[in-house]
Amino acid sequence: MNDARRPIRFCYLGMLVIALVANLMPLLFIPLRTAFGFSFEQLGRLTLINFCMQLVCILLGGPLVDRFGARRFAVLGNAFAVVGLWLFAGADRLLFPGNPYAGMALGAFVFSIGAALLELVLSPIVNAIPSERKAADMSLLHGFYAVGQIVTVLLTSLAIWLHAPWRVAVLCWSLLPLITAAGFLRTRIPPLVTSGPRQRVRGLLRNRIYLALLAGIFLAGAIEMAVSQWISAFAEKGLGLPKLLGDLGGCCLFGAMLGAGRIWMGLRPSTSLARALPTCCSIALASYFVAGAAPWPWVSLAACAVAGLGVSLLWPGMLSLAARHFPRGGASMFAALSAAGTLGCAVAPWLLGVLADAIRTNAATPGVLIRIGLHMEPEPFGLRAGLLAATLFPVALLALLRWINRQPPNPEAGDARRTVVSAAQS
What we know:
Layout: H1 6-27, H2 29-36, H3 40-68, H4 71-89, H5 91-95, H6 100-128, H7 134-161, H8 166-173, H9 175-185, H10 201-204, H11 208-228, H12 231-238, H13 243-267, H14 273-293, H15 297-311, H16 314-325, H17 330-361, H18 365-371, H19 378-389, H20 392-405, H21 411-425
């Protein structure tokens, strides 16, 4: 066993925890709506709370990781995930019996801190391991997000299908971050910047390429989460499919496509990001359009799954581009990028929920549907309209990628790569 790559293996487990935190709540949207009468906006707001808290923690934590090291933050992130899942599970009985939404919001608040701390350190740790295939390692790391998504969907959907209490499933899932925390406690993490002065975020923010990368990863997060957070609810309420079928045929296949793209990139380190990223963005755009516009439920569900392939390389690809252009950025650089991406993850699903609710509750919607000849209720129409509106995100990212690909490479990147290769060979 190559002990030098041991931190990467525990980063893979950490990425499973991030996937759990991001994907568990959407699977519970309809059970929670049925049990407590939550609106679509309230459900979307839980996602907003989750990702906005991650955003704040990432912004505040980047300089602290550079100062105090990554391992303690990796352990602390898993600990917060455990406590947050416990709080979420006990929200309606122990914390706020008369206001379960407040308790669930508190639980989401706490486990989102855990996900934020992990998001803050996992990519910098992988980037710090000496390797000639950093883009491939980064894609494999984020490929484990897809693995975590698939496993979360399969096991949670099976528990719901077997009529297991949702809170029991949440409590069982808390074992994953508990095990991951124990692993990081026994793992040595290398310095995140091994040679030369670290580039300050203040200086990076004056660089046009870095600002474009921030905007790009914001759009990448929006593209990924706008569909993945709503597939389960969209399949059941928007397409009229059974929940288990929607979870397995939509969420699970989305995760499988997401993982396939990232693992393929991890196994082919010579793949050009300049070609791969626009291709993936185009696939995401087409998938969003078909999912929202196709009159056949099976076609819409299949498009949701194919969207996973489209978004697969966007987030890790933007991180890899940043590492190439700014090799001495350290955890603070990755923190700012993760914060921008997390903001996209927070805003897009919430906006989709707001738009779906606005259309569903608008008194004019039934008349409009009759005039345009659509035999559809306002609720599924609202969800479809939200997906169609979300096509604006991949359109904007395509334009941004064209500009980034025309920019000259950073001369420091070549020096940094030679330093890494030398360290790997020693």
